[in-house]
Structure formats: C-alpha cells, structure tokens
Amino acid sequence: MIILFCESCDWLLVPCTLLAFDDTDSPDGMCTTYLATLVLEELADFDLIGLPRLVRLNPNIPWKTRGNAAICLPLGRGIGRGEVCGSLNGSAIRYFPRGRQVDPTELLSRASRVLEKVAIFECDKTNPGMVVSNSRPPPSLYWKAVRGLVSLKEVEKILERSGAVWKKYKSGRGVIGASAAMSWRPRDRTWEVIAYRAPSRWGTLRKVDPKSVIRMDKHTKMTFNNYDYENDHVAITPGSPCPILFGIRGDSPAELLKAREMIRGEEQDRWLMFLTNQATEDHIMERSVTSLRKWESARVRVHVSAPPKTIPGGHVIVRVSDGTEIDAAFYEPSKQFRSVARALLPGDQVTLLGSVRDTPRSLNVEKMAVRNLVEDVRKVRNPVCSKCGKSMGSIGAGQGFRCKICGSKSPLSAATYRKFKRTIKPGWYEPPISSRRHLHKPIRRMSKVDIDKI
Ligand code: ATP
Predict the structure, then answer these.
(1) In CATH, what is the architecture of 192-276?
(2) pLDDT of residue 398
(3) Ligand 1 atom 14 nearest Cα
(4) Is this structure's pTM higher than 0.85?
C-alpha cells in the first residue's frame, strides 16, 4: 500500500481534485459511503489519487442521520502504478501515488447527477451538498466541524476563497460536512474496509458468520472493534437497513485487505477501503466544568462529590466536581461500563471524556480514567457506652455518639471501622465494543503518552 503523506506535516502531497459530499441518506436507507462507490463507478474515466476519505464530524449534532460521516474523494488523472483499494462490479478500483488535477466544474456536473439519482430527498433530515475543489480548505474548518458547530454561511465564504464549486439541495446543509471532510488534515488516522450487500438483499437480515469474525479478530493484530466478547455481539455489521454488509477498522490497510477476505457470509457485492479519522478522539477538547458547552465533547479532571445513583432505565449518575459540579451520566447502552461508575466513591479522582448535554445538564461519559481512589473505610459498629454497656446512637453526621440512657458522649473515632477492598483500580476504562462511538479511541490504540496523561 502506498501512503501519501509527508512524514513531517502529514499533508496529502500530490495534486488532485477533491470531490466531497454529505447528507444524502435517511435512517431508512442508503449510506453516504455507498454513494462513494456509485460515484467511482460513474466516473471510471477518472482515477483516485490517494484513498477515499471517510470523515466523522461532531457526534453531538442533533440533525445527523447516524454517525455524522462525510466523504471526500481525491480524483484526477493517475500517474504511476495503481494499488487496489476496492472492487466494483468485479473490477478492481485502484488508487495512484501521483496525478494531475481535472476540471472541477465537469467533475461536479457528472458526480452530482449520481447524487441526484440516489439521495433520499423525501426525508426531512436529508439536505445534500456536493463540493469540488482543486485546493483544500484550511484544516481549522475540520477542527471546528468535528468539535463544534459550523454555519453554512461561514463555509460558503471559505469555499469562495478557495475557488471551489458546489451544489446545494434543499437547505444545502450537506455542504458543511462535505467541506469539512475536504479540509481534514490527518494528525492521527485509521482505515476502514467496507463491504456492501447486493441491492436485492437490502433490508433483509444480514448473514455474516460470527465464527469467521472471531477468527479474523484473533488472526489480525491491528484491527479493532470487531467482536464484542462481553456481549457476544458481532460489531462489524451495522444495525440499520443501509447497503453496508460490514466494515472492518484497523491501523494497517494491508492487513484490512486480508481481514475482509476472512469474513464468511452472504455475497460481498462490492467493497472499498477508506482512510478515516475514526478512533482518533479528534472530537475531544480539554475543558473545565464551567466552560462546558452543549453539543461539544470534552475531557474534564474532576473528583466524585456524591455516591453514584442508579436511576430508572438503568442509567448511572455520578455527581462530580472540579470546583463546579455536574452530573456524569453513564447511560444504559454503555452496559458493563456502568459497573465501574457504580464502584466509585466520593473523593475518588477521575478524568472523564464525554459529550455535553444541555437539559438535563450532564456529561455523557464515553471513557474514564481513574486517577486516584480513596480508601473504602466503613463504620461497622457504634461504640458501646462505658457506663451502661449499651450501644450508643449517632448524634448526627460527623458529630460523634451519645448514650440514649445516661447521655454520655463519645467521639467518631470510638466506633469500629473496617477497610473494604476497592473493586476498581486506577487506570483507563471504556464501554464494551458494541457501545462505542465512531470517534472513540479504544484503549488499545492509545499511546503510552495518552495513557500516562490522565
Ligand atoms: P451517515 O453517517 O449515515 O452518512 P450522518 O449521520 O452523516 O449520516 P448526515 O445525514 O450527513 O448524517 O447529517 C449531518 C448533517 O450535519 C450534514 O448536513 C452535515 O453537513 C451537518 N454537519 C456535520 N457536522 C456539522 C457541524 N459541526 N456543524 C454544523 N453542521 C454539521
């Protein structure tokens, strides 16, 4: 596999024409990554100059369909030897190490015809956008779109400056995601190989042999999030009726090519490899509790200020503070992750990563580092009155004991206490594989620096 990055600046070095699109699907069907395969099929006379890019943006945007993904295809006239990165209708798709740019207007006109054929326009939430440019918008646009809120107006200003051409459908909101995908300059990156179902099978139950997924998981070293052993669940297949059969994620594109071939099940009608920002945690910002803003994702260093509570629905709420208090929510879908939350005690120091919810104001926790644990010392017996020989009663929280018969008093230290073993240890904790978000960086992907920086 050819990696097209400058080692020092990580920038795509070669000239190409960028074609990006977003917001073409609905919860009932289609998928923007599938549109990428249709566009490549239609534009078979152009070449990929580098891998297609699948870019996840702010996961808290309320108007997203599913995973807030946008696509950017680097296209042109390829130079050099192409490498296989997919298969469409039995023909290999190749990407080239170098190339020449093409006319953006022609590209937009041809690619937008494909979008117009398949986008689910009748869905309220679907507002497609397609952008073509010979120069990349500034990376600051990507960072804002993966971490915050971007307006269409500001994006269009940037596009005008970079000489891009674009098409909007309905509100045209998709132009935001498309432009952000174009502006992504990878700081960290992963790859995903996606296999698609034959159209005749869309909407029917997916057939993927779980044993082959486990075998692939065990025989590959750099893939991740394949199988949720805690919940016995195949994690590479989506739950929605979209055209995707499965997607395997990993840190080695060469290994992903082999991993795909190891999966048994229904026919893989077509497949394509993407360069992605998934599992990079690009969405997370260091924050204090007071500076948390709705729809952002943050990392806060706090201590537990009240015992965890389990509320109806099985969600666990832990009051935490860094001087300002907030509820940290461990929702039911995070499954076993909640048992770590339940094991916390007031005074424990933790670092929480999660998304901010406005009402009720809370931090929806996606990952946690336990920095320091208090001792779990509990009173097991009240003191006995030295005069009456009877058990004394508590005067009130933190105020010692009094004998109900003779009224004599004893300090708090007179009671019998026992130290219990803590059930959790300092270190990192995360939800099981099937409850993770696309941008969640699995602990196994974290560098030593990431691990130590708690
Ligand atoms: P899928 O993952 O199935 O492709 P999706 O979850 O990506 O669907 P979209 O249908 O693409 O959802 O909807 C997301 C919409 O939000 C798009 O129109 C996109 O342009 C817009 N958007 C994405 N990030 C931001 C942001 N940070 N600020 C404002 N709008 C955004």
Answers:
(1) Alpha-Beta Complex (3.90)
(2) 87
(3) 64
(4) yes
